[in-house]
Design a protein that fits this description.
Blueprint: E1 2-5, H1 10-21, E2 29-32, H2 40-45, E3 53-55, E4 61-63, H3 65-75, H4 87-114, H5 117-120, H6 122-141, H7 152-167, H8 178-187, H9 191-194
Parallel strand pairs: 1-2
Antiparallel strand pairs: 1-3, 3-4
């Protein structure tokens, strides 16, 4: 299999962490690319020119990190990332974390291309408000360290928080979110997360 990715995409990191957690690292070729420059190799696989894209052994190109996560969860070893007995809780928590990830990513991109005006726009204000609400909810819910066996919600939450800390640290002050900082510090000791830190 091939995984098209770069080092700063939170969505690509989710896919890579899932692959590591499911014991698929030795079956995965990492293809580093720049989606913003219409990388020809990436475009040859998928028309959206977004990462991550997973090319399966039978030549199918799957875009979107949560779809890739589902595929790898079925292909890999060990317990399911979305255990049947906790499916509603895991998916609900994943949706909060993924929404945080998307809002943070879109703020970063908007600031890159629009400057300070990005935050003042209607969409900018909605994104900032969404981040504040998501962080407040997660601060209440993540009082315990990550479990020994990660589930998809924990992977998405760890990556989302790490991305905010990496790109938008002013939105995640430790004084306001002590539980999140403690939880993330514990989660990032796990090998799959430690190996994939943002750079």
């Amino acid at each position: 299999m091939q995984l098209f990715l770069n080092t700063t995409s939170p969505f690509a990191r989710v896919a890579r962490v899932v692959a590591l957690e499911k014991g698929l690292a030795d079956q995965l070729e990492l293809v580093w690319c720049d989606p913003w420059n219409n990388d020809p190799a990436l475009l040859a696989q998928h028309p959206q020119a977004r990462i991550p894209v997973l090319v399966t052994d039978d030549g199918q190109a799957i875009a979107e990190s949560l779809l890739i996560a589902q595929y790898l969860d079925h292909m890999g070893r060990g317990p399911r990332l979305i255990p049947a007995q906790h499916i509603s809780r895991v998916l609900a928590q994943t949706s909060v974390a993924y929404g945080l990830m998307e809002a943070a990513f879109n703020i970063v991109i908007a600031r890159k291309y629009e400057g300070a005006a990005a935050d003042a726009s209607v969409m900018g204000q909605r994104r900032l408000a969404a981040i504040t609400r998501a962080l407040a909810q997660l601060e209440k819910q993540l009082s315990a360290p990550a479990e020994a066996q990660l589930t998809l919600d924990q992977i998405a939450t760890a990556v989302a928080l790490a991305y905010v800390q990496f790109r938008l640290p002013a939105l995640l002050p430790q004084a306001d979110y002590p539980q999140l900082h403690a939880w993330l510090q514990s989660a990032e000791q796990r090998e799959a997360l430690a190996q994939t830190r943002f750079a």
